[in-house]
Specification:
Helices cover 4% and strands 56% of the residues. It is mainly β. The chain has a 6-stranded antiparallel beta barrel with strand order 1-2-4-7-6-5. The longest helix has 4 residues. The radius of gyration is 16 Å and the shape is globular.
């Protein structure tokens, strides 16, 4: 894969909970963002029933260069396309054997 194939800028976001509010709850948290260039490959979409309605689900593979910050990514994080604003739910994260690329399997609802 070459840098020319990584045409989309994405924001990889981790939610950080707020401080305890003293009443048993928490103050609102924030999203910590890491920007990266990615190659986005659409896979075969499908339909699923969500809240008693048929909803289209589009899986994608996002390929990014390996960095320590992104390598710590889990399925609790999310990915947002900075151009379109589309938010992807992360399903799995895999690093190649040479630690050069990270492939993120994610999906969004259409």
């Amino acid at each position: 894969m070459s840098i020319g194939e990584m045409r989309e800028q994405i924001a990889i976001e981790k939610y950080v909970e707020g401080e305890p509010d003293g009443y048993g709850g928490f103050l609102p948290g924030t999203w910590v963002t890491h920007l990266a260039w990615a190659r986005i490959q659409n896979l075969k979409g499908s339909e699923t029933v969500i809240a008693a309605r048929l909803t289209g689900v589009q899986p994608v593979v996002l390929s990014v260069y390996w960095t320590p910050d992104i390598a710590a990514m889990t399925t609790a994080w999310r990915v947002r396309n900075t151009d379109s604003g589309r938010v992807y739910d992360v399903k799995s994260v895999a690093t190649d054997e040479r630690r050069q690329f990270i492939e993120i399997l994610a999906e969004y609802q259409t």
